[in-house]
Amino acid sequence: MTAIRLLPNQLISQIAAGEVVERPASALKELLENSLDAGSTDINVSLLQGGIKQLRVADNGIGVPFDDLALALTRHATSKIASLEDLENVASLGFRGEALASIASVSRTDFISRHADEKHAWRITSDGHHIETPEPAALDAGTIVEVNDLYFNTPARRKFLKTEGTEFGHCEEAFRRVALSRPDVGFMLQHNGRALMRLSAAEPERRFIDVLGADFAAEALSIDESAAGLRFWGMTAKPTFSRHTRDTQYVYVNGRFVRDKLISHAIRQAYQDVMHGDRHPAFVLFLELDPSLVDVNVHPAKTEVRFRDSQAVHRFIFHALHKALATPTGASNLVTASQAPSNPFASTLEASARPYPTFQSQMDLRAQQSSPDFYQKLFGNIQPQVPSSEPYEHTESSVAPSQDQPLGYAIAQLHGIYVLAQNHLGLVVVDMHAAHER
Asked: Rounded to an integer, what distance in angstroms lies between the CA atom of residue 80 and that of residue 257?
């Protein structure tokens, strides 16, 4: 039997890197979070070959003092926590002191930083094995981290990386997630020397449009609910803007992007009565609460969280979304991207003061006057009925059910989601989204 031995620090770091730095996008996420924790207001990202050849993040944050520079690439060295109490109340995005050390152990890394109190910048480099002595460098302010040849010294890991296009797609998605979380920060993304995305600091609604597009904004509902120390806000699309995949779903807990089963279940339940089971809603939603009420130290990538009172969080999110989706929207469901308001948050939730609707509450039925084109395509030519003094007598329709108007005539709209129509057989309920697709 082989004797138990203590692993060398280099191997320990490389093992940790396998959990923290799964691919270039993972490294990019960690570097962007470090920049935000440093108070940056402008962050530039530059990639070569999907981030495999080079990944560079430059910011204008506070920088690292010279005395701390040697620890920047050392495992379990951090300025963000110092005790268990700090960990239980952590508000920063990073806190373990693992990311930079893990990245440096599987790449050739250059770290340049200038603290506000320093006369000039300093550079420290790592070749994947050794950390060199700091030397003077040229930089006005902030920090630049340049990661070259990711996984060059662990070929078994490198062979699991995908094509340049695939890895860049993951990096771009990581960039979008961070950019959505901080509208107050400017971002730029370049790939192979070409600028792909420039995002100026802006209000949340403007950032959502810039990242997710005008189509999303035109079909989105604004949410901002608070109760018992919880706040849930953002934008969620109407059921008519549902998707085949979950590619437009962004949830943040205290500014951190997460994929939480509890939150996902609450959102799904809120949509279950107004959306087909094989469709997925689009949203960008933020949950804010006391850091002591949520544990973020659950997953190596910090994408999972654990709530102290999970049932209360679930109920709060469900009711907030349910109320927003139950608010009558009328003809606004048919707004096109070109008609999207410049400020999608301008329309407040008028029903926010009302109790949640029950099955016994009065349904909101409105005659639809503002979207004739939709009904024209769906129901054909609508002929107005002329009032007559003669008593009503039933006659056979001159149009067969299988001909031009199988759905009959539109008479009202329910919650901006369903069209109520009548034909010779009775009442017809039409899902506008499904009808539009057909």
From this structure: 19
User: Is the CB of residue 132 less than 8 Å from the CB of residue 126?
Assistant: yes
Tell me the per-residue pLDDT of 12-62, one tens digit each, with 9 for 90 and over: 777 777 767 889 999 999 999 999 999 999 999 999 999 999 999 999 999
Q: How many CB atoms lie within 10 A of CB 237?
A: 24
What does pTM read for this prediction? 0.74
Instruction: List the beta bridge partners of residue 136.
Output: 122
The model's pLDDT over 81-129, given as tens digits with 9 standing for 90+, comes to 788 888 888 888 887 778 898 999 999 999 999 998 899 999 999 998 8
pLDDT per residue over 252-265, tens digit each? 999 999 999 999 99
Q: What is the 3-state secondary structure (H, E, C) of 373-427?
A: HHHHHHHCCCCCCCCCCCCCCCCCCCCCCCCCCCCCEEEEEECCCEEEEEECCEE
Tracing tokens 């495999």 back to the chain, one arrives at 52
Cα dist. 346→185, 214, 220, 223 in Å?
Answer: 22, 15, 12, 11
